[in-house]
Structure formats: C-alpha cells, structure tokens
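Action item from last meeting closed. Structure (645 res):
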C-alpha cells in the first residue's frame, strides 16, 4: 500500500529506523570526543580504584581527613572546615521510615513506604487553569499550549507569601514551576514522526515549563490546580530574552532577524534567593536537524562538539519549522540560542523568561545556587554527557548590592570548570578570554561562553561520568551524582570505575565558602556496591540534601535486582540507605521539591512505560489501553512528619 506520509517524513523515517539507539535513549548518546581522557596529569588512578573497590561503598578514595594533610591549596580550609563541621546524624533518628522491600519495588504501579502515602497531581495534559481544555489524546497544538506539558522533571514549589511584618511562605498554596524535559513523538503524537506543522507545534507545546498555581484547600483534602493570573505555559515558541555577556553578540542573531523564542529540553532546575525559578536546557541539540533542501549542511567543529546531527533525536521539527533546520542559511545561529540557564519569575506571568548567558552554554543538567563568601552568588552546574564537565559561576559582588543597583547577580561574574586531581584536591579553572590559551582560539568572551565546552576542553578540565544533579548540604559540602559511563576505559580522579555502568556520587568542598579556586573531594557512594542488597540502586540522577543532612537520591536507568526507578533516602554517612518510593515500569523518577514546612514533597514520574500502554497505564487504572501520562507525585508522611524522616 502506498504511504500517505509526506515524502520528507518517509525519507527521515527510513534513516531513523536504522538508528534505534536514538529512539530510546534520550540523554545517553554522545561522548565528549576531545582528548582530555588520557589524564596525563594523573599518576595513581589504578591504585585509587583498587582502594575504592576494596573499601566498599562508603570508603572514600581519598577521605577528607587524609586530604587535609595536603597543604598546597589549603590556605583557608582549616578555618572553613572548623566553622562548618559535617553533621553527625544520629542513627535511627534522622531516617525512621520502613523502606519499600526490594521484592515489591517493581510493576506497573508505584510503591511507597508503609509510613507514607502519595497522591497524583498534574498529569500531562491537565488544564493549566481549572476550566481550561480537557485532555484528549493526542492533544491538539492549541490545547497543549494551555495544558501541563510532558516529561515532568526538575521543579520548585514557591509558597505564597503570607504574613505582613515577617516574610513567611505558605505550605498549602503556591506556584509550582516545573520542567517538561521531553516527550517522544510516539508518546505525544501517537506516531514516530510529524506529518504537518501542526504536529510539530503540538510537540513543541508539550516541551518547556509550566508555572501552575496549586493548593491543598482542606487539611485532609487533595492538592489541586487553582485559578491564578500567575499560571502560565512557557514552551518552544514563547518569546524569551537574553542577558549577560553574550546577549548582544552576533552569535545570537540570525539572517532572518527572528526574535528569540522558546526553551527546550528543560531538565533540572534551581531557585534563587530572590525568589525566581531557574530552568536548565539540556539536550537541545536533538531538536535540530538538517533537511539539506537548499544547501548541504556541514557541521562546524562547535556544532559537532554540541552533538548536532542531520536527524537529531528524531523529532522531525526541522521538516516543517525552518527555525530548527541547520541547513537553512536564514536561521544560522538559531541553535546558539539554546543550551542556557533561563530565569523565570513564578509570581509574574508577564515577565519574559531570560537566558543568563554568563552561566555558559552547555547541556545544563541543573543549577544549584548558594550564597558564598561576601554574599556572592555561586551556581554549581553539571554538563550531562559522557566525559563532560562540572562548572561553577561566581557573581562579581554581593548579590543584594547588585540587585539594589538593578543588576542581575547572574549577569556579572566568572565561570569556572572543575579539574580534579588524584590526591583528593582540585581546582577551578576560569573560562576567560584573558587566558592566552583561550584567546588563541576565540575572539571574545561571548564566544568563550557560547562554546564553553570547547573552552573547557582547551583548559584540560576533568572528564566526568555524566554529571547530573548537584546539591549543597547545610555544612557546605557539595554533592554531585555521576549517573554512569559505560564507555570509560581509563580511571580518572573522582571517576575511578572502568567502565562505570551504574554510577556513583561524589562530594567536595570549596575553599572560602564556595568562592575559592581550590577544593577537596571524595567519593560518597558507589552504586554497584549496593547491588544484591536491600539497598540496591543504580544510575543516581536527581539529588537533594536537606538542611538536616538527609540525602535524597533519585534514579534514572536500568535498576538491578528487578527494581523500577526509585527515590531513596540516606544520610551523610551513606551507611543507612532506605527506599522511600518506586515508580512504574519504564519510567524515571526525577524532580524534587518540598513545601517550606517540609511536610509535603513533590517528585515526578517521567515517561511511565516509555509511553507504551501495554506496559503501564499509570496514573489511570490498569486497562492495557490508556496512554500512560507523566505526572507529579505528592508524598506525605502518614503521621504528618518531615518527609524523609
Ligand atoms: Fe535530563 Fe541528564 O538528565
Ligand atoms: Ca537527569
Ligand atoms: Ca539521567
């Protein structure tokens, strides 16, 4: 039977069928191809690895106690360590709940600890406003723009300000800002490739961010969406602004003169002390492709380094929307408009989402903001790709003073990339055009920031096993998940496993309360050490350390021992790991935020069943037919206690 698909759709489909990996593995596709891997400056990698493996999960490669004897970079460490001792959790008090047994953590519906309960909030397609368009599958482009998107990921709850004299924030009503990372065409459209611009628009509107008003009206009632002038959808076609050193660069202008639109592949997130939401653009490259209609596209070295390809991740947007066609000369540079951290005001729907270019352009997993020495803003960020890097940004001055002057603390500062050494120490290398190494490659700071990956390659940053989330503990330790790296062939500092199919978690502490250029690191947990035990987990991804020292770990990958992806809680010793919640078959557990009273936690079930109704129908009752929908899970303790306890 002759195909009814447009020719260009058929041609792309043929090419894609030969490349199944792209269909199923959204964030695991491209390696850093540079030659930072040999670790010429590393002497004892193998020894370190042997020590690690011998010592088990909680034995550090190089403990902080040992590393404190390294004097070279330590000018303020002792003072710093003295002022912020690591909290010593009392066993049995910090984490008290009964864990989900290993044997129960699988299947098409979630499981939760006996001491907890959960409810479902805002599945994909929920009307943003209570009386908005109901979900029909597949959604129309128009409806989807007024509904919750798909691919629920990083999020932050912003409690409504209450009280007059003292600032307090509600734990019962507020704005939930939530990322919609991705949704495959097969899930969103019910077909592999778009057949019209309208299909593309539906897919585009399913991506981005929702800012949605939610409330729990009655003590024993459920959380619901409520009407609010602050609720809004931000998607691939929403006007955005640029700020910071790259804002006026020609790197962000196109021949066509089209205004900047949209945010894409919004993965993890952050929040600022001044009450805004930060959404992070991760695998933006996958939405571009090349039709080669008029000119044949040849990737520049920079495009190659960021993973652009002729077919992208099979979304096919470029077939109907020229903006995403790399071979269209009118839209050259459009791709430089993605890969940034974007600031959103959750309480002002008229604010234009603003891309903060001083934080660099790479595949931003998330951004963890802390206030460092001198009230400077420090932003820790991972670039999630095999052998890519960890970055930090430090604002030039006291953030409150900057804001008083009308300057965003995220616009003026220095960007650094991490270089770990085998001795348990490390340093932050500045990405600046003042460095002759970078001046030999780039014309100005705008280029350095736009092609931050290339700049970091040149500085000899340490290639990591896919940095995902970063979270800073109350004692200033910085925790980072390294989700896995099946292609590692050589051990490196902080990345000792060869290969590393299951991931690990590291932690470090910077000198001078996050603003210094030296740090000390250690391994916190190695996933493979938990396999075969009740505490089994793999592929740590989402991460949050609460102010008491509970470490929440979310997973994204093939769990061992028959498990679904899960949410676990441990403490800063890593010795007591408990399973709080497991998702459904084929999903990912990601995104974590709490109400100010910490009695309510929100996490997400992303891509349940990978969109296949034969696998799961969650959150609908199991019927083998209903399309599963990404959703937020609201978790509370049955006795009303702090979540995680
Ligand atoms: Fe979107 Fe690296 O996870
Ligand atoms: Ca992730
Ligand atoms: Ca992941």
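Sequence:
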């Amino acid at each position: 039977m002759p195909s009814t698909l447009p020719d260009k759709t058929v041609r792309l489909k043929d090419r894609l069928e030969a490349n199944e990996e792209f269909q199923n593995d959204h964030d695991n596709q491209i390696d850093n191809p540079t030659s930072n891997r040999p670790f010429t400056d590393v002497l004892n990698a193998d020894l370190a690895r042997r020590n690690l493996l011998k010592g088990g999960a909680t034995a550090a490669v190089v403990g902080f106690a040992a590393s404190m004897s390294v004097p070279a970079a330590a000018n303020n460490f002792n003072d710093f360590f003295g002022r912020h001792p690591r909290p010593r959790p009392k066993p049995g008090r910090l984490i008290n709940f009964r864990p989900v047994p290993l044997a129960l953590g699988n299947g098409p519906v979630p499981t939760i600890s006996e001491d907890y309960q959960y409810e479902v909030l805002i599945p994909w397609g929920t009307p943003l406003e209570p009386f908005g368009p109901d979900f029909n599958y597949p959604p129309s482009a128009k409806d989807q723009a007024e509904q919750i998107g798909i691919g629920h990921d990083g999020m932050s709850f912003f409690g409504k300000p209450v009280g007059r004299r003292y600032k307090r924030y509600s734990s019962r009503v507020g704005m939930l800002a939530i990322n919609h990372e991705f949704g495959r065409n097969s899930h969103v459209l019910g077909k592999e490739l778009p057949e019209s611009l309208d299909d593309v628009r539906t897919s585009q509107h399913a991506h981005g961010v929702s800012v949605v008003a939610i409330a729990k009206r009655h003590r024993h009632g459920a959380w619901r969406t409520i009407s609010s002038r602050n609720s809004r959808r931000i998607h691939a076609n929403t006007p955005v602004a640029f700020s910071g050193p790259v804002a006026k660069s020609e790197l962000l202008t196109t021949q066509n003169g089209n205004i900047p639109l949209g945010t894409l592949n919004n993965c993890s997130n952050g929040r600022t002390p001044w009450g805004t939401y930060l959404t992070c653009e991760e695998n933006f490259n996958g939405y571009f492709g090349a039709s080669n209609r008029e000119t044949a596209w040849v990737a520049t070295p920079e495009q190659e380094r960021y993973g652009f390809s002729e077919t992208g991740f099979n979304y096919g947007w470029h077939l109907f929307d020229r903006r995403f066609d790399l071979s269209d000369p009118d839209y050259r540079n459009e791709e430089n408009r993605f890969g940034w951290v974007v600031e959103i005001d959750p309480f002002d729907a008229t604010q234009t989402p603003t891309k903060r270019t001083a934080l660099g352009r790479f595949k931003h997993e998330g951004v963890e903001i802390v206030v460092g020495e001198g009230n400077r803003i420090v932003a820790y960020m991972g670039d999630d790709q095999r052998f890519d890097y960890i970055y930090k940004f430090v604002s030039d001055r006291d953030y409150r003073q900057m804001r008083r002057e009308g300057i965003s603390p995220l616009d003026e500062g220095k960007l650094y990339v991490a270089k770990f050494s085998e001795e348990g120490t490390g340093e932050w290398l500045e990405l600046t055009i003042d460095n002759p190494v970078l001046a030999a490659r780039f014309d100005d700071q705008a280029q350095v920031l736009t092609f931050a990956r290339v700049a970091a390659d040149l500085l000899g940053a340490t290639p990591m096993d896919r940095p995902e989330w970063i979270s800073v503990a109350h004692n200033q330790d910085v925790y980072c998940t390294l989700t896995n790296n099946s292609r590692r062939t050589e051990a490196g500092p902080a990345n000792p496993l060869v290969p590393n199919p299951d991931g690990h978690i590291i932690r470090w502490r910077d000198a001078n309360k996050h603003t210094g250029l030296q740090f000390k690191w250690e391994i916190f947990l190695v996933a493979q050490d938990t396999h075969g035990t009740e505490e089994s987990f793999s592929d740590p991804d989402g991460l949050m350390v609460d102010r008491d020292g509970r470490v929440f770990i979310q997973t994204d990958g093939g769990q061992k021992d028959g498990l679904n992806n899960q949410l676990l809680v441990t403490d800063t010793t890593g010795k007591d790991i408990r399973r709080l919640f497991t998702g459904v078959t084929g999903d990912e557990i990601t995104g974590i935020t709490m109400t100010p009273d910490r009695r309510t936690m929100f996490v997400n079930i992303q891509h349940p069943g990978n969109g296949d109704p034969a696998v799961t129908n969650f959150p609908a009752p199991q019927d083998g037919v209903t399309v599963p929908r990404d959703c937020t899970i609201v978790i509370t303790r049955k006795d009303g206690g702090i979540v995680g306890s």
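Note appended to the action item: The pocket of calcium ion (ligand 3) is lined by residues 27, 468, 483, 541, 556 (CB under 6 Å).
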